[in-house]
Structure formats: structure tokens, C-alpha cells
């Protein structure tokens, strides 16, 4: 099966719905609890839950808008600070992942931004117990380094990043990796995946 725009949109929508289900469900639960709760202290806790869930949902939407959508409007460049804020917002509520940002360029080309964001998402998912996510970019090169007490990097995701998974076997869980592979291939670039230590995962991207 050849990947069509409809297939890709369906997979991306499934991925977005999966990632947004938890914070949106938490908001729904908070509203239900608030409607039935009369104790002032418990109502305050419900409001805190609603506030946190709303912030998480908004941060995820901002991130996905840049990673999958037409973030930055129709310009071919995206402000680097907007990129940093989107990534930091995705991880900033439980402080489980610490972001190191080493991008000096004031703007980045939109295709490179999509690669960087989707690969950051994959790298952060590998940090199952939290850790450090360091991101650097200069010219046509992007480097992402994940380090944590426990790293779990799915073999299927790695195979998809390297173009070794048939398109008819793609799932919503793999679609971000497939998008990265496709964007890099369009630029005649290459992706290197290295595990220099058991608790370190390193991605190096060179775009032509």
C-alpha cells in the first residue's frame, strides 16, 4: 500500500487523539467532580486539576501544530524561540525531563523544524523515567541527545526512522518516525542513531 495524504492524515489524527485523550479526560473528570463537590477545599483541588489539564492540553496542541501542522503560518521559517517554548511546554509541568537548548539560529526552516520536533518527541518517549533532553542545531545539522536512568527505544520506531518498515505496517505509534524518515529523504539527508552508553541515545541529522 502506498502512503496517501488520506492515510497519513488518518494516522496523524489517531496519534493526536491518543496523546490528547489523557489531559482532556482529566478536564472532563474535574468538571464532573466540581459539579458534585461542595467542600471548599475539594473544590479548590478540582479547579487546580482543571487548570493543570488545560495547560497540558494547550501545550500539546501548540507542539503538534508546529510538528504536524502549518505552524508559523505560511512562512518558510519558524522563530527558534517559538520552537524552544513548544518543546519546553510539552515537558514543563512535571519536570520529569530537563531541556537543554543549544540553537543559536534566530529562525529555522520549517521542514527542519518538523524533523526536530518529531524526533524530540520520540527521544522524550524513550526517557521513561525522565532525564535530560539536549537539542542542538547549526546550519543543516541537528543533534538530539537523550540521557536518563532508563532508556526504552522501540525497535520498530528505530526501523521506521531508517525506512525499514513497509508502509502498510505503519501505525499511529510509528507515524512520527515515518514522517521524519520521509522529510529527511526528501532533503537527501541522512540520520544516524547511536547508543554510546546504555543510558544515552543520540540522533544526528544532516540535511542537504
| Rg computed from alpha carbons, rounded to a whole number of angstroms | 18 Å
Helices, by number, come to: 6
Low-confidence stretches: none
Strand order of the largest sheet: 2-4-5-7-6
Number of strands: 7
**What is the strand content?**
15-25%
| C-alpha geometry | globular
Series of secondary-structure elements, N-terminal to C-terminal? HHEHEEHEEHHEE
Please describe the structure with a list of short key phrases separated by commas or semicolons:
single chain; about 210 residues; alpha+beta; five-stranded mixed β-sheet; two-stranded antiparallel ribbon; about 50% helix; globular
Molecular structure report:
This protein has 208 residues and is α+β, with helices and mostly antiparallel strands. A hairpin with a 2-residue loop joins strand 6 (190-197) and strand 7 (200-206). Helix content is 52%, strand content 21%. Helix 2 packs across helix 3, helix 2 (40-68) crosses helix 4 (110-126) and helix 5 (155-161) runs parallel beside helix 6 (175-186). It has a five-stranded mixed sheet, with helices on one face. Strands 1-3 form a two-stranded antiparallel ribbon. It is globular, with a radius of gyration of 18 Å. The protein has six helices and seven strands, in the order H-H-E-H-E-E-H-E-E-H-H-E-E.
Amino acid at each position: 500500500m502506498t502512503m496517501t495524504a488520506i492515510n497519513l492524515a488518518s494516522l496523524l489524527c489517531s496519534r493526536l487523539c491518543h496523546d490528547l485523550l489523557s489531559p482532556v479526560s482529566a478536564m472532563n473528570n474535574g468538571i464532573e467532580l466540581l459539579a458534585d463537590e461542595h467542600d471548599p477545599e475539594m473544590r479548590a483541588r478540582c479547579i487546580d486539576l482543571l487548570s493543570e489539564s488545560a495547560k497540558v492540553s494547550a501545550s500539546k496542541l501548540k507542539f503538534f501544530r508546529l510538528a504536524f501542522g502549518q505552524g508559523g503560518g505560511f512562512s518558510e521559517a519558524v522563530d527558534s524561540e517559538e520552537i524552544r517554548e513548544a518543546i519546553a511546554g510539552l515537558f514543563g509541568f512535571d519536570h520529569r525531563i530537563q531541556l537543554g537548548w543549544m540553537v543559536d539560529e534566530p529562525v529555522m526552516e520549517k521542514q527542519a523544524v518538523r524533523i526536530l520536533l518529531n524526533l524530540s518527541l520520540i527521544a522524550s518517549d524513550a526517557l521513561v523515567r525522565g532525564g535530560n533532553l539536549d537539542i542542538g542545531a547549526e546550519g543543516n545539522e541537528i543533534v538530539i541527545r537523550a540521557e536518563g536512568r532508563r532508556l526504552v527505544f522501540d525497535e520498530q520506531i528505530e526501523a521506521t526512522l531508517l525506512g525499514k518498515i513497509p508502509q502498510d505496517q505503519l501505525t499511529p505509534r510509528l507515524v512520527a518516525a515515518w514522517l521524519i524518515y520521509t522529510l529527511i529523504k526528501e532533503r537527501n539527508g541522512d540520520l544516524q542513531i547511536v547508543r554510546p552508553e546504555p543510558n544515552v541515545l543520540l540522533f544526528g541529522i544532516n540535511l542537504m
